[in-house]
Design a protein that fits this description.
The complex is a heterodimer. By secondary structure, chain A is largely without helices or strands. Chain A contains 15 helices and 17 strands. The relative contact order of chain A is 0.06. Classes of the chains: A little secondary structure, B mainly alpha.
């Protein structure tokens, strides 16, 4: 009985090449098939009169002897030498390069050469994704011996694996990647693949991508694309890469046809936008959300202009050394992959820069790896550091903060917003002992600590999607998103509105106080501390303060400037809010270089006082901020047409320790 | 039970082959074939029949045809045709021994002056520099199926390999000192026993019992030179590639 069952099973014809697209015979139902020739094998093989013997090949490959026939794949991250196609690749290309007619055979029925008529008058392979053409630059390289010594991200397939190296240029040595390494043209499998490529299993037989397993993209359960039948994670490598006919000239990137602000359909960002747009993917049930819509961010009033350049970017997270593009970026462009490594990226609150490289505060290259996380600013320093002048407008039109952020954020500077480390102002008045609004800083937290004088910030606490202004403190606390310096409706990609209007030498910028002009500042700095009048309690003032009887006795001097005497802008005295390193219009008197200077650096419209400084007897050529010989801070300058900052009335209380 | 199952499989396969109507298999039509060099239907003349183009009677006392039947230019090679392997000893070194040699004696153009389609001198059998074929000059004969020794004038390129092992019952044994080229041998690629389809396997151990571990493919595996009723002396019709698929499971 068992034998009978076995026999019945045995005579069932198993699916074979006859059920595939490679059955070109007239008996198939394929679109590309012969009109009357019913042999299957003959389109590739003939037992006698073949072009060559291994295997007996029924197509005349002589045309491939032309050394310039094929344009060979190249890549700046490729370590292997890619020769002209050899071995089995030549066989496949004899149809798939679109040169020979599909029915053009060495021999058929003792007619040499023979031509088999195809249905519908098909001659060469119809134009489409299967026709690779003779330009092989957008196809996975073939016929090369993998250079595993130079590239730790390439490994040889393990013995017994369905993916195998094949014979190449060296006779008898199976050392090369050929079409047949991944495809068996006889297999009735999906795309003739030798094994299932779900989750990139086939690709990863050779491509070792450390950090991919467990990365956000690998873990994603979001439907790809929306309403798709697979998930982003199951789609694996193919979610972004196309092993054949990729739209990108190198690295074989998939792109959609959603051209965005560019005539280039293969623009790098489109690879990301195919998921990272509105409706790009369905909801990932593990996260309860779809892929963040970055494309919308990139269409906002100010954004990192990924659309401006195509083919400028080279990856830096490759193991290929030296990096095809220096980590300190000298080539003006920005692409998604300048900040994110898509093979390793984690989603917030994880590390979105996992696997990236950056520039440290000291100017050295730093790598985000399994043991070290990059600081966010280290990513920014790639362009906004030592090579900033390449990336931002020329000096004549440069915004006040357009300078070298690496130098500006050095922790030895006299004043800086505390990105690179704890700030210089360690006054208790800057401290936030309780949550807002009692503290000077509003003080939500982003690392488990309240914002206080010991806190550090992220660049993205000020430069972020404007929707993240829905909470005080760090943008990381915002439930809105997507976060990050992708784009904002505010100038300079600011998280909240901030007016860049400064006064003239004759008058203030504003006719009245309006908190919205400083909304950005007030996300962290308590507005009440700054705009309430004098004589508020000692526990709730700033250091910019005069007691009655001292100097002019005006109390809260921020209030004086913002509301009481004039309607100034923050940036008239804090012109570059990043640091005091570039303070071209400020004369620091009796403040040693590197001593705390409270981020005071004056706007160009602030003028020197027309007279001698009574504290020192000299006449500075710039607006002066200094300490009197006895150590009390004061200003000596002229602004808004008023020469009231005379160095006597403007002495205020020493910094509260 | 496993053996019984195998028998059932073989029986079923044979039955299937019979139903598919392999016309002409086992049916001798030599007189109607192109191998009748007198012409179809002509049985020959007195003293010379059509068989004698290839065969002579073993005990014929007076011989009316030249004794060098297979290689008129080098009679010493004729020994290869009659030398038989010792079943207990190593296989013959001469890998073109056996029926394939008999075919090539005409079809390699070294003997025959008859215009034959597939002979090496014809343009269809060109030599090329394909990497694998180039090995024929590099002295690894155990992997070199396809070329005759050069002195045999044999650039027999572009032909299906012969004198090669067949993995009968999926046993990857060698044949005539040649190992299976595809290692590891993938069972999915081969029919366990193409004889069920009407093809013929040979043994390199002498005798007539083709058993697992001794089987090989020669010209006559696919062709029956005495005629089959199919085109090209094929044992199985080439239509729908049934011939190829009798061995190759692709």
């Amino acid at each position: 009985m068992i034998g009978l069952v076995a026999a019945l099973l045995a005579v069932q014809p198993a699916p074979d090449i006859r059920s595939t697209k490679h059955n070109l015979s007239s008996n198939s139902t394929n679109t590309v098939r012969a009109t009357s020739e019913d042999q299957v094998c003959v389109f590739c093989h003939i037992p006698h009169g073949a072009y060559q013997s291994r295997p007996v090949w029924n197509r005349d490959l002589k045309y491939q002897d032309n050394p310039s026939l094929y344009t060979i794949y190249t890549s700046t991250t490729l370590d292997s030498n890619v020769p002209r196609p050899n071995g089995a690749a030549k066989l496949c290309l004899s149809c798939h390069d679109g040169t020979l007619a599909i029915g053009s055979l060495m021999n058929n029925d003792n007619i040499r050469p023979a031509t088999v008529q195809m249905q519908g008058g098909v001659t060469t392979m119809p134009v489409g994704p299967r026709n690779l053409g003779t330009d092989l630059r957008n196809d996975h390289p073939i016929s090369m011996v993998p250079n595993v010594a130079s590239d730790p991200e390439i490994v040889l397939p393990p013995p017994g694996d369905d993916v195998r190296l094949r014979e190449g240029a060296t006779p008898g040595v199976k050392d090369s990647v050929q079409c047949t390494s991944c495809h068996d043209p006889h297999l009735p499998t999906f795309k003739f693949l030798v094994k299932d490529n779900t989750r990139g299993a086939l690709c990863m037989t050779c491509h070792n991508k450390p950090g991919w397993i467990g990365s956000r993209h690998e873990q994603s359960l979001a439907p790809y694309p929306v309403n798709g039948t697979t998930t982003v994670g199951d789609r694996g490598c193919l979610a972004c890469h196309a092993p054949h006919n990729g739209s990108s000239p190198s690295r074989l990137l998939q792109t959609s046809n959603q051209s965005f602000g560019t005539p280039f359909p293969w623009a790098e960002e489109n690879v990301c936008f195919s998921c990272h747009q509105s409706g790009g993917t369905g909801i990932d049930p593990a996260r309860g959300r779809a892929a963040p819509d970055i494309r919308t961010q990139m269409q906002k009033a100010t954004h990192h202009p990924v659309e401006l350049k195509t083919d400028e970017h080279q990856p830096i997270f490759t193991t290929h050394l030296p990096e095809p593009e220096s980590v300190l970026n000298t080539n003006k462009h920005v692409e998604c992959a300048d900040c994110h490594n898509p093979h390793r990226v984690q989603a917030l609150p994880g590390n979105v820069h996992e696997g990236s490289k950056g520039i440290s505060l000291s100017g050295s290259v730093v790598v985000d790896d399994a043991t070290t996380d990059l600081h966010q600013y280290e990513v920014c320093f790639r362009c906004h550091g030592d090579t900033f002048a390449t990336f931002i407008p020329p000096a004549a039109t440069r915004p006040p903060s357009g300078s070298n952020k690496r130098l500006e954020l050095q922790t030895t500077n006299g004043a800086f917003h505390p990105v690179g480390g704890t700030g210089r102002n360690q006054s208790s008045y800057l401290n936030n002992v309780l949550d807002a609004p009692d503290g000077q800083l509003k003080g939500n937290d982003w690392q488990g600590n309240h914002l206080n004088r010991g806190s550090t910030l992220l660049c993205t606490d000020c430069h972020n999607n404007e929707q993240t202004a829905d909470v005080n403190g760090s943008a990381r606390n915002s439930p809105s998103g997507p976060k990050g310096p992708h784009g904002s409706q505010n100038p300079r990609m600011l998280r909240a509105n901030y007016s860049f209007t400064v006064g003239t030498p004759n008058g203030p910028p504003f006719g009245a106080y309006n908190a919205n002009n400083f909304a950005l500042c007030f996300l962290c700095h308590d507005e009440n501390r700054l705009v309430r009048p004098q004589n508020i309690g000692a526990g709730s003032r700033t250091n910019f303060y005069q007691n009655g009887g001292v100097g002019a006795g005006r109390g809260n001097l921020h209030w004086v400037h913002l509301i009481d005497k004039t309607n100034a802008n923050c940036m008239e005295c804090h012109y570059n809010i990043h640091s005091n390193v570039e303070a071209a219009n400020t004369d620091y008197k009796n403040i040693a270089s590197g001593s705390p200077s409270h981020l005071i650096n004056f706007a160009p419209t602030v003028r020197p006082f027309p007279g001698n400084d009574p504290n020192y007897g000299d006449r500075p050529t710039k607006p002066r901020y200094g300490h009197t010989p006895s150590g009390q801070p004061y200003c000596f300058l002229s602004c808004h047409g008023k020469d009231a900052m005379d160095g006597v009335k403007t002495v205020y209380l020493p910094v509260n320790p | 039970m496993r053996g019984a199952a195998l028998l059932c499989v073989l029986f079923a396969a044979r039955a299937f082959a019979a139903q598919s109507g392999e016309a002409g298999h086992g049916e001798s039509r030599i007189d109607q074939s192109k191998h009748n060099f007198f012409g179809a239907g002509n049985r020959g003349t007195e003293g010379m029949d059509l068989c004698q183009f290839c065969h002579v009677p073993n005990r014929l006392e007076t011989f009316t045809v030249p004794p060098a039947l297979w290689d008129a230019k080098n009679r010493s090679r004729n020994a290869a045709l009659t030398e038989r392997a010792d079943p207990a000893g190593p296989p013959l070194a001469l890998r073109w021994a056996g029926s394939t040699l008999r075919c090539l004696s005409c079809h390699d153009s070294t003997v025959s002056s008859i215009a034959i389609v597939y002979r090496p001198a014809s343009t269809s059998l060109r030599f090329d520099a394909v990497a694998g074929d180039a090995r024929r000059k590099e002295g690894n004969p155990r992997q070199n199926y396809l070329a005759m020794p050069d002195e045999w004038s044999g650039k027999v390129m572009g032909n299906h390999p012969v004198a090669v092992p067949y993995p009968l019952d999926l046993d990857p044994s060698e044949y005539r000192r040649y190992e299976p080229r595809a290692t590891p041998l993938l069972a999915k690629d081969w029919s366990p026993d193409p004889r069920a389809k009407g093809l013929k396997l040979f043994t390199d151990k002498s005798g007539f019992d083709v058993i697992t571990g001794t089987a090989g493919v020669e010209c006559a595996s696919c062709h029956d030179p005495h005629g089959t009723g199919n085109e090209y002396f094929l044992r199985v019709p080439k239509e729908r590639s049934e011939l190829c698929l009798s061995c190759h499971r692709k």
